[in-house]
Design a protein that fits this description.
The protein is mainly α. Helices cover about 45% and strands about 0% of the residues. It is built from three helices and no strands. It starts with 15 loop residues before the first helix and ends with a helix.
């Protein structure tokens, strides 16, 4: 598989957000943050997930 592979059937999420208590689907705040910043969920570093979890 290549890094630029796009799949219609699956999505890759980092494990960290789930280990701190998030569940999928993510809350409205988290979804809005990623919609506004245009970041992918997998681009968020663990520190960013901790801040989102605290704000949530």
């Amino acid at each position: 598989m290549k890094a630029d592979l796009c799949s219609e059937k699956w999505v890759c999420f980092p494990f960290y957000p789930f280990s701190i208590g998030f569940t999928f689907p993510f809350s409205h705040l988290v979804n809005e943050f990623f919609n506004i910043t245009k970041l992918a969920y997998s681009q968020a570093m663990p520190f960013m997930w901790r801040i989102l979890y605290t704000l949530n």
